[in-house]
Amino acid sequence: MTETAQNPELPEETHEFNSFFDLLTSQGADRVYFGEESPETIRQWINNPMTSHRQIKRLSRRMYSRNGVYTNVIDYMKSLPTLDRVAYATKNEKKNVPKNIEKANTFADQIRDKSFVRDVLMGGLIDGEQYAYAWIEKTAPLPKSLGDLDIDNIKE
Q: Cα 46–78–136 angle (5° rounding)?
C-alpha cells in the first residue's frame, strides 16, 4: 500500500509532466513571473483548472506580456496554420463555377477570414477560450462619379 493511500492529506503521485509549469519554475526568479503567487499555489491551480480558471487566465495574460519565450510560443502557435482556402463547386455546372469561386474568395477577403481565425486562435491560446461572432451587412454601392454638389463641397 502506498503512502498516499494511508495518508489522504498527501497529494497523489502523478507521472504527468506539464512543460508550461516546468518552464515557469525553472527560471529561478519566481516572483517576476508569478507576482504574489507561489509556485505551490500555481501547482494547485494546474491540478484543479476548472475552479482556478480565472487565476490561470490572469497568469497566462501576465506571462504573455512579460515572458519573451511564452510570447514567442503563443505567436508561433497562432501563425502556424497556413489558412489557405480552397473554394470549389458542388454542382456540375461548368459555366458558373469560376464566377462562383471568385465570389467565394472575394467574400472571404471582405470578412478578413485569416485575421479573424488568428484572433480566435490567439484568444484560445492565451485565455483558454474565445467567443467571437461575425457581423455581415450589405452596404449600398458607392456612386461611380461625383455630382456637381459633391464637387462644390470639396474643401482643402
A: 115
- C-alpha span between 51 and 3 (Å, rounded): 27
Distances (CA, A) of 89 to 45, 98, 101, 110: 49, 9, 7, 20
Going by pLDDT thresholds of 50, 70 and 90, the confidence category of residue 64 is: confident
Q: What is the model's pTM?
A: 0.53
SS (H, E, C) 53-104: HHHHHHHHHHHHHHCHHHHHHHHHHHHCCCCCCCCCCCCCCCCCHHHHHHHH
CB 44 within 8 A of CB 52: yes
Which run of H or of E encompasses 126?
helix 113-127
- In whole angstroms, give the CA distance from residue 92 to residue 38: 64
